[in-house]
Design goal:
Elements: H1 2-26, E1 31-45, E2 49-62, E3 66-76, E4 81-91, E5 99-110, E6 115-127, E7 131-144, E8 150-165, E9 169-176, E10 190-198, E11 203-215, E12 221-235
Antiparallel strand pairs: 1-2, 1-12, 2-3, 3-4, 4-5, 5-6, 6-7, 7-8, 8-9, 9-10, 10-11, 11-12
């Protein structure tokens, strides 16, 4: 019984703080942006061969300062299922400075192996028009089968550089060990080439190619796989 409480404590605290923050904010703030998107991802990996994945992400912004974002992802290989979800709260206190403070809750699960990972991930980000960087610490609880949960604290980072960023196209290169649905080990960083085609102020077509790395001791890396993601998002 005590083991179960230990595993559920981080996500329970995050969910409680999330709803308290929502209730205090919604009374006086107005909605400044809404966004919904759907994506398909195909990957070839050295361990599971082919992986097909579909995901959906939603976002709501209040008063140009408070952003609430969440998503669900379902993947399938030849032998197993991959379930991922996340909730993110971001606070951007400065009007003309692209500095943000975020907290994410990330769930990663493999039902066939009874493997469940729950992460609380606070990080700081600089989201500039040409380049940006995010850094934080991932506090992760992972449970395999019926064993006790294993706790890890992992340094996480992500950087991007936009070669082109205008009203029609955003094209650039990203590099890091986390995204919306995953916060990986320190040495599991992956380069990504992305392109966002902006048809108008509402519809965006999104494509990216990622070279996935698997980390090991001594900060060594091994090519793990290659993935391609495509999808669209609608903002209003």
């Amino acid at each position: 019984m005590s083991e179960k409480r230990k595993i559920c404590l981080p996500e329970s605290i995050f969910i409680l703080l999330f709803f308290i923050f929502c209730l205090q904010s919604l009374n006086s703030l107005e909605i400044t942006e809404k966004e919904a998107g759907g994506y398909f991802r195909g990957a070839f990996t050295r361990s599971n061969d082919y992986l097909n994945e579909i995901s959906t992400i939603g976002l709501i912004e209040l008063d140009d300062k408070y952003t609430f974002k969440g998503g669900l992802s379902l993947g399938r290989t030849i032998v197993d299922t991959d379930i991922n979800s996340f909730l993110n709260v971001k606070y951007s206190p400065f009007e003309n400075i692209p500095l943000g403070f975020s907290v994410s809750y990330i769930y990663n699960g493999f039902p066939e192996y009874e493997t469940h990972a729950n992460s609380i991930f606070p990080f700081v980000s600089w989201d500039g028009q040409r380049m940006g960087v995010s850094a934080g610490c991932n506090f992760r609880f992972t449970r395999f089968f019926r064993e006790s949960a294993q706790f890890e604290s992992i340094l996480s980072f992500n950087v991007y550089l936009n070669f082109i960023n205008n009203d029609k196209l955003c094209f650039g290169l990203g590099f890091g060990n986390f995204d919306d649905f995953h916060a990986n080990n320190l040495a599991s960083f992956s380069p990504k080439l992305y392109a966002v085609i902006r048809f108008d102020s509402n519809w965006h077509l999104i494509n990216d190619i990622e070279i996935m790395q698997s980390g090991a001791d001594g900060l060594t890396t091994t090519l793990y796989g290659v993935s391609f993601r495509t999808g669209a998002k609608y903002s209003w």
